[in-house]
Amino acid sequence: MDRQKALEILHQYLHTENLVKHSFAVEAVMKTLAERLEPDKVEEWSIAGLLHDLDADLVDYRNHPELHGPKTIEILRGLNFGTEDMYHAILAHNQATGTKIESKFDQALYAADPITGFITAVALVYPDKKLSSVKVKSIIKRMNELRFAAGADRNAMRSIELLGIPFEEFAELSLKAMTEIADVLGL
Predict the structure, then answer these.
(1) What is the three-class DSSP state of 162?
(2) pLDDT at 118
(3) Contacts for 9 with CB less than 8 Å, ≥ 6 apart
(4) Cα dist. 157→21, 107, 166 in Å?
(5) Is the dihedral of CA 5, 44, 160, 133 positive or negative?
(6) For residue 111, which of 39, 179, 40, 45 has the smallest C-alpha distance?
(7) Per residue in 86-110, pLDDT tens?
(8) Domains of the chain and CATH, by start
(9) Which of 92, 61, 88, 64 is nearest to 76 (CA)?
(10) CA 84 to CA 63: how far, in whole Å?
(11) Spans in the chain with pLDDT lower than 50
């Protein structure tokens, strides 16, 4: 498994610009989480973040959410790319698949996926629309405003605490990871 091959796969199957940016954001957060929780798994966790939504342009996940994840695994298996742990985390990040969260890897991806979109939404309400303007306290404040980014799964984001990381710290490390690739994200 290497990132260059993962990038080729990403660009072969995922074409919606915002989904590609989201994939890079989740990759960055997963890398940071792996460095903290499983330092020997940084590449695997990062690539899972990069490819977790690989099938988003291929399946009607709005009407059939259970299809989001299994198609990604089918593609990755067909390419002989990835690991069983990675496949499980990708399936578990979408609870509609019925796949239970069983590991740190699963839990990390489940929490990382929605926080990247949430932080992006916070950045977009600033006049300059830049991640560098976002403060952790703004993320925390917006978490309590249920109408703000109403589709963001706050329970999934807060579930990071099951791994011993307080939510405020998770918000900070996620924001930092995303800010480091702000140019890629266009934020």
Answers:
(1) helix
(2) 98
(3) 51, 54, 75, 76, 79, 81
(4) 19, 10, 11
(5) negative
(6) 45
(7) 999 999 999 999 999 999 999 999 9
(8) 3-185 (1.10.3210)
(9) 88
(10) 27
(11) none
> Letter for the amino acid at 146?
L
User: What's the farthest any 2 CA atoms get from each other in the chain?
Assistant: 45
What single-letter DSSP state applies at residue 38? -
- Which residue type sits at 47? I
Question: What pLDDT was estimated at residue 162?
Answer: 98
Residue 127, SS3? Answer: coil
Q: What is the pTM of this model?
A: 0.97
Q: Give the span between the Cα atoms of 84 and 69, in whole angstroms.
A: 13
Query: What pLDDT score was predicted for residue 25?
Result: 98
* Three-state SS at 26: helix
Task: Work out the number of other CB atoms within 10 angstroms of the CB of residue 97.
Answer: 17
